[in-house]
Amino acid sequence: MSERHGHDEQPGENGPWRLSGVLLPAGEPAELWVADGMIVPGPVAGATSIARGGWIVPGFVDAHCHVGLGHGGAVTMDTAREQAVTDRDGGTLLIRDAGSPVDTHAFDHDPRLPRIIRAGRHIARPKRYIAGYAAEIEPGELVAEVERQARSGDGWVKIVGDWIDRCLGDLAPLWDPDEAAAAIARAHQLGARVTAHCFAEESVAQLVEAGIDGIEHGTGMSEAVIDQMAARGVALVPTMINLATFDRIADAGQAKYPVYAAHMRALGARHRQVLAAAREAGVPIYAGTDAGGTIGHGRISDEIAALATIGSPEFAVGAASWRARSWLGRSGLQYGASADLVVLGADPRSDVNVCANPELIMLRGVPHRR
Questions:
Q1: CATH superfamily of 60-328
Q2: pLDDT of residue 3
Q3: What is residue 5's predicted lDDT score, i.e. its pLDDT?
């Protein structure tokens, strides 16, 4: 166990601080010095030792989270702020918001809240996604809507790749493949990456072929699609704690859409096998909880534990920390970086369950204890 110092020993919430422990991913004992919210060379005069003997991890990343989204769509700004604080208190210090009806850019000015990289609002078709969640458009309007969302986001756009088609009674793609390819190309021209919600087989195959940058969920990936994603570096954020609810989703649709319900159960039954195959093939995989809507916030440790069922503990922690930060273009624990970190009481590469109880969470150099 690491040794901690209480708030009564702190000179002020901004430090300066001294932390010592094992730095991950390197796995070597080291000291970190924090001043003015940044990691700096030490020693620093007057620094207070705030953590000794723990495992120091770059702040967790939730790469599929919805701040500002509730069961019925948009929530108030106060509720959105509470969601972000809940995520922070679980150790999530960087969020890739995978679609929200609320513009949370004002949160960028609040140093107490996690950093957020936004994808604008979900893009879907009328009656082809959850009511109140998405910007709903008709076929032929996708390129223009991608332009709008690219300009309102922070370098990402989120489209809904498939959802139940009430006429077919089953999951089906929302977009013509050529229109999707044109929209993805336009996003790239604007400097944005595109990711897509995909449950079933057809949509993920079409969108990977169309040049998409990321896939959310990905339960319908075939071996050929997995190989294509690995070759192209298409990212996968499986949201495993959401996939665990597929049976419940199927039960809700059984009476009206039995084919859809059977399809969802089949996708859920084999999701670990499919995701493990993607990992083994070299598809880059990152942690995302799908918080917002039906999944609660602050559950990044649950997602890390779920990812450890398809790979090693180190793979799972890296998917929620240093590898995810690198993928999103954010720094780790080097000099000049913001002091966004989590201190754990044991080595998470041996037991991911320790991620559920951080001993210290530091965001922008300010300590937050659970």
A1: Metal-dependent hydrolases (3.20.20.140)
A2: 52
A3: 42
Burial class (CB in 10 A: 0-12, 13-18, 19+), 55: buried
For the chain, residues with pLDDT lower than 50 are 4-11
Domain parsing of the chain, residue ranges: 16-58+330-369, 60-328
**Alpha carbons 236 and 270: distance in angstroms, whole number:** 16
Q: What is the pLDDT of residues 259-283, one digit of tens each?
A: 999 999 999 999 999 999 999 999 9
Supply the pLDDT for residue 301: 99
| pTM beyond 0.85 | yes
Torsion of CA 207, 210, 214, 219, to 10 degrees: 20
The pLDDT of residue 14 is: 79
Distances (CA, A) of 64 to 12, 19, 94, 177: 34, 30, 11, 24
Taking domain 16-58+330-369, whether its CATH number is 2.60.40.650 is answered by no
Spatial CA neighbour of 119 closest among 164, 66, 161, 62: 66
